[in-house]
Design goal:
The protein has eleven helices and six strands. It is an alpha+beta fold. It has a four-stranded antiparallel beta sheet, covered by helices on one side. A two-stranded antiparallel sheet has the order 5-6. Strand 2 and strand 3 (21-26) form a beta hairpin.
């Protein structure tokens, strides 16, 4: 691929086959190169392409103005989340997370650390992203010799969560709604969940996107009415819990569950309640 403009050792501007401007990023892809030369793309690299000129300018600014070490940390963080946890992250996170890490490190150098009021919720509800955030803190310590408190891992996790959603959502609102639904299930069945269970993990993943739809007011047409009737009658306790959730959402969020949403909740509730211990 032809290099139109070198941004740094790890990124350059080019054009795709349609003539659209793209940014190519990868460790050392532009090392020792000059404008007009060809880049031999091997190993791990990523091509960023967007028709949004404002986003393009943010990409260019980050790749040109922020030291390569920050970009490399961001690239490794996203690689870990996508490969180790099978998550898909929007390209804009390469910008937002790099900017965040750069700002956080500059503050820490001045002795400023910011507590994260959502630390406990993020650690519990977004476990994969939080664990990735902790790995990021180790990367930062290894590169810059700086040690953050764990609150920063939660801030990094917030960027990773937002990068998986269709639209930007207030993590505070989403976490609150997720916890409200989880608490309703706990109180209904009088049990605590095994948060290390694969069933709980899958439920929280479902709940994350479900909460986003409710907060955004997104409505989908139901297509599973017949199947819903079968499982509503089969898992009556889980269905009764879903009815309570539906009433709560109608009252506090002006949102009514369709039969598809009720069906998914019934199945998830049935699985997590069968893999948890009832409190004595």
């Amino acid at each position: 691929m032809k290099i139109v403009k070198v941004l740094n050792n790890n990124a350059f501007l080019s054009y795709d086959e349609q003539g659209q401007e793209v940014i190519v990023m990868g460790i050392g892809v532009a090392f020792g190169k000059k404008n007009g030369q060809m880049a031999d793309l091997k190993g791990r690299y990523k091509i960023f392409s967007t028709s949004d000129s404002k986003i393009n300018e943010r990409f260019k600014a980050v790749f040109s103005d922020i030291s390569e070490e920050y970009l490399e940390i961001t690239e490794r963080i996203i690689f870990i989340l996508e490969k180790e946890y099978d998550k898909k992250i929007d390209d804009i996170v390469y910008v937002s997370l790099t900017e965040h890490i750069h700002g956080a490190i500059e503050r820490l150098k001045k002795g400023i650390e910011v507590k994260n009021p959502l630390l406990m919720d993020i650690r519990r509800l977004f476990k994969d992203e939080y664990e990735t955030g902790l790995m990021a803190l180790k990367e930062i310590e290894a590169v810059f010799g700086l040690t953050f408190i764990e609150d920063e891992a939660a801030y990094i996790a917030q960027h990773l969560v937002n990068g998986q959603l269709d639209q930007l959502v207030d993590i505070n609102d989403m976490s609150k709604l997720m916890q409200e639904i989880i608490n309703m299930i706990k109180y209904t069945f009088r049990m605590e969940f095994n948060e290390d269970s694969i069933y709980y993990h899958r439920f929280v993943t479902h709940l994350k996107f479900f909460a986003q739809r409710i907060i955004d007011g997104q409505v989908y047409v139901s297509e599973s009415d017949d199947i819903f009737e079968v499982f509503r009658n089969k898992y009556t306790a889980s269905y009764e819990c879903v009815v309570k959730i539906d009433h709560y959402l109608q009252k506090h969020y002006h949102y009514s569950l369709n039969t598809d949403e009720q069906l998914y909740l019934i199945l998830h509730i049935e699985k997590i309640t069968k893999n948890s211990q009832i409190q004595s």
